[in-house]
Design goal:
The chain has helices at 7-80, 87-100, 121-124, 155-160, 168-176, 221-228, 263-275, 312-315, 317-379, 388-499, 507-612, 620-652, and strands at 105-112, 137-142, 148-152, 180-181, 185-188, 194-198, 200-206, 209-219, 237-241, 247-249, 279-282, 288-296, 303-311. It has 657 residues and is of the alpha+beta class. The strands form 2 sheets. Strands 1, 2, 3, 4, 5, 6, 7 and 8 form an 8-stranded antiparallel β-sheet that branches. A 5-stranded antiparallel β-sheet has the order 10-9-13-12-11, with helices on both faces. The chain starts with 6 loop residues before the first helix and ends in a 5-residue tail after the last helix.
Length: 657
């Protein structure tokens, strides 16, 4: 089909087709590559958010377990040493726990089996009112005005403690003798404020016997607000799932405190808890990316789950916009390049077409003249034998015609060589184009290096998380030391009160308390130093990543510059093609000039033949020879006409005759 089209059309079509394929391939590759990078970055961010926030929540919950655990250990030692006479000391202890983190702890308490503390429950009955059962069980909490109140165990509460459901907070650690944490529940204060609470509980065991529990009430309102603030890419969200499968936090309030319905998430939660690591997956419909991080609840063996969800289409929106922009620019570039190529092909094909028409017309004229020459030669058959001299002139003219034909042949040969040079120049342009493609591939490799450098940066950020975890451990050490110091002070006070005059010997205990306080100060200094070194390390990592990224960008720019230089080489090759075409046009002009000289020679032959008319008889034999020569010229001119037609067919298409 293309053979019937003009040379400029075939040239333009071939070049534009190759460029179009290259642009389409580059657009598709860039879209897939950018989509993969953006999606990988989004998934990495979701994993980081889920793990980071889960660790923060887990740290706060485990701190509450640590408070309850330390209080349980202290009370157990006091019971073992029979330092149980003053209940007010214990009340002050549980009050200190609540006040140590006012925005997170709502209340704290300790609850014992009947007469398990001091055997004097009956003496304390109705001490705080008619409903006071006297049981050693006190709950120190905040009231609606922000003040702190002490609630003793009433007779009704003493019964509910052993009732399944209402008393799970006490029954579960009593029966399992292990730490436990009740599922989050909604609680309304006396002032009407609503909050979500949960209670880590630690059993008090002495000589294998269960005596009671210590418990800390945690308000989850701040945790829920923190989770609701997680909005990756401004479209994602997070949710908190309790160990019983109920939704604790969700942007949709209608789902809160209801069982999780998504079966895929249930399976991921189970796998995450069993393997104790972050799990991720696409949703069942493939529209969302889901990341689940486990939250360990002390030593209870249970886990909560923090889920971060990001819509995939929102993540890829930037990549789609980039692809559309690239397609638009590619179409615009294709239009501009097509126009340039079309006009360039026009400038090459037009001179060739004109020259081809000239050669074709020359062949026609030569053929017509050769026909006339044959007729004249036939008329010479009756000429006189006295035309010898005129025949000599005819032979000379025919020699000139032969020389002109040879000149035409030589010019045609040089035209073929010029065409071959043009073909070589075109091959050079092809090689330059391939070199440009390899330069673009080098740019792609530089981009891959940037991606690898980014992955290294993520690993270094993980090292920062390890440092912050170490800081958290130091903080727990200080908290435990301060807490134990407080308990030691209380023990000293109790012992001094019991010993009377002999209690003065407890001054040694007071000195130990001072040393513990000094240890706390040293630990605080260590924490400050550790924070300072952590900050410096973060800054070093940032500077290192910045320098590496800038270096890779410079390398990519150098690759682009190399691609531009390669394109310039391609332009020079095309200029060689144009020069070769000019040479072809010049050679064709020489052919035309030679043809004119040949026409003049033929005119001389006609003149000589006119002179031979008088001597027809004498030139009979020579006339026959002239007829034979004229026939040969006719055949050669017909062959020239055929060549001219083939040349025009190549330039203008096979459909044109």
């Amino acid at each position: 089909m293309l053979k019937s089209k003009h040379l400029r059309t075939r040239m333009a079509f071939a070049i534009i087709s190759v460029i179009t394929l290259i642009l389409v391939a580059m657009t598709v590759y860039n879209y897939k590559k950018s989509s993969a990078l953006i999606q990988e970055e989004a998934f990495g961010k979701a994993n980081y958010l889920a793990l980071n926030y889960a660790k923060n929540i887990e740290s706060d919950i485990n701190e509450a377990f640590s408070k309850a655990r330390s209080l349980a250990s202290t009370l157990s030692r006091m019971k073992e040493k029979e330092i149980v006479s003053n209940r007010d000391v214990v009340v002050e202890m549980i009050g200190d726990i609540v006040k140590s983190k006012k925005d997170f702890y709502y209340g704290s308490g300790t609850f014992w089996e009947p007469n398990a503390w001091d055997g004097k429950d009956h003496e304390h009955a109705k001490k705080f009112g008619a409903e006071d059962s006297g049981l050693f069980g006190y709950w120190y909490r905040k009231d609606g005005k922000g003040d702190y109140v002490l609630d003793p165990t009433t007779a009704e509460q003493a019964v509910k403690m052993y009732k399944p459901g209402d008393g799970d907070w006490y029954l579960i650690p009593m029966q399992s003798k292990k730490e436990s944490m009740i599922e989050p529940y909604e609680y309304t204060t006396n002032s009407g404020d609503k909050m979500v609470l949960t209670s880590p509980s630690v059993p008090i065991i002495l000589n294998g016997k269960f005596l009671g529990i210590t418990s800390v009430d945690i308000t989850l309102n701040s945790v829920i607000d923190l989770i609701n603030s997680i909005k990756p890419y401004d479209v994602g969200y997070a949710m908190l799932i309790a160990s019983d499968g109920n939704v604790v936090s969700h942007p949709n309030k209608d789902l809160v405190m209801k069982p999780l319905a998504d079966e895929l998430m249930k399976g991921l939660i189970k796998k995450s808890n069993e393997e104790k690591k972050v799990e991720d997956s696409l949703s069942a419909d493939g529209k969302d990316y889901i990341v689940i991080a486990p939250i360990k609840l002390g030593e209870s063996g249970k886990y909560w789950s923090l889920i971060v969800i990001i819509p995939v289409d929102k993540v890829l929106a930037g990549s789609i916009t980039l692809a559309k922009t690239q397609v638009l620019f590619s179409i615009l570039a294709l239009i501009i390049v097509s126009l340039i190529i079309y006009f360039l092909a026009q400038s090459i094909a037009k001179p060739l077409s004109v020259s081809s028409d000239s050669v074709h017309q020359t062949g026609i004229d030569l053929y017509a003249n050769s026909e006339k020459l044959m007729k004249v030669s036939e008329s010479l058959s009756s000429s006189s034998t006295e035309q010898s001299a005129a025949l000599v002139e005819t032979a000379t003219a025919m020699d000139e015609i032969n020389a002109m034909v040879q000149a035409n042949t030589s010019a045609a040969r040089r035209g073929r060589e010029a065409s071959q040079d043009s073909r070589s120049a075109a091959l050079e342009g092809k090689n330059a184009t391939e070199e440009m493609i390899r330069s673009i591939q080098d740019i792609r490799e530089s981009t891959t290096k940037i991606s690898e450098q980014t992955n290294k940066s993520n690993i270094e950020v993980q090292e920062i998380l390890t440092i912050f975890q170490a800081i958290s451990d130091k903080t727990k050490v200080i908290n435990d030391i301060v807490f134990q110091t407080k308990l030691l002070s209380f023990n000293a006070s109790v012992e001094a009160a019991r010993a009377g005059e002999q209690g003065k010997g407890f001054s040694v205990v007071a000195e130990e308390v001072g040393k513990l306080a000094e240890m706390s100060g040293h630990s605080s200094t260590e924490i400050a130093d550790l924070l300072s070194s952590s900050t410096e390390k973060v800054e070093q990592i940032i500077q290192k990543n910045k320098a590496a990224t800038e270096g890779l960008v410079v390398e990519a720019n150098q690759k682009v510059k190399a691609g531009i230089q390669t394109a310039e080489v391609c332009t020079e090759a095309l200029e060689k093609i144009i020069i070769g075409s000019d040479q072809v046009a010049q050679l064709v002009e020489e052919i035309f000039s030679a043809s004119e000289q040949q026409a003049a020679g033929v005119a001389e032959v006609s003149k000589a033949i006119a002179e031979l008319e008088v001597q027809a008889q004498s030139n009979s034999t020579l006339a026959q020879e002239a007829a034979t020569s004229a026939q040969i010229v006719n055949q050669k001119s017909d062959a020239l006409k055929t060549v001219a037609n083939e040349l025009r067919s190549v330039i203008e298409g096979s459909a044109k005759e």
